[in-house]
Amino acid sequence: MNWLQHLCQLLYDSHFGTYIRESDYAFSIIESVHVLAITLLVGTIALLDLRMLGVVLRGVSVTRIARTVFPLTWSGFLVMFVSGFLLFWAEAAKNYGNPAFRIKVLLLLLVGVNPLIFHTTIYRRVHEWEQLDVSPWRARAAAIASLTLWSGIIVAGRMIAYF
């Protein structure tokens, strides 16, 4: 057994993991909080992405939308991360070999790289294009990648229960 699989088994066998998994309410409450946090996170990200694609709020600058939604985005991310880790803790041994879970983790890594690249490249010059109805192609590509990756994460997350 490799170290990661061993760690997953330790989490799964822990009292806390067992409590979450076997409780009448804990798992479902945590899962509901997780879904609501994803809704907040992806909703705010989608708003900015759709603005960069020129689909919504064309008259509002990209930076104004970003400044407005980022506190909500980070709040959603924090709650999603904590609740997701608790769900993982409860089912770590099962998730270790679950292909849907592995796809979700891979997509989460990619969705983290996307804004890193975006903010260190095209967004540095946002003052040049933020008022345009449709953003430059690199910003649109990042928006499409973001929407696609988050959609994949949601689908893979839902599929975990079926593998």
From TrEMBL:
Residues 29-162 form the DUF6644 domain. The keyword Transmembrane helix applies. Keywords: Membrane, Transmembrane, Transmembrane helix. InterPro entries: DUF6644. It comes from the Bacteria. The chain crosses the membrane at residues 25-48, 69-89, 101-120, 141-161. This is DUF6644 domain-containing protein. It comes from Terriglobus roseus. The lineage of its organism: Bacteria, Pseudomonadati, Acidobacteriota, Terriglobia, Terriglobales.
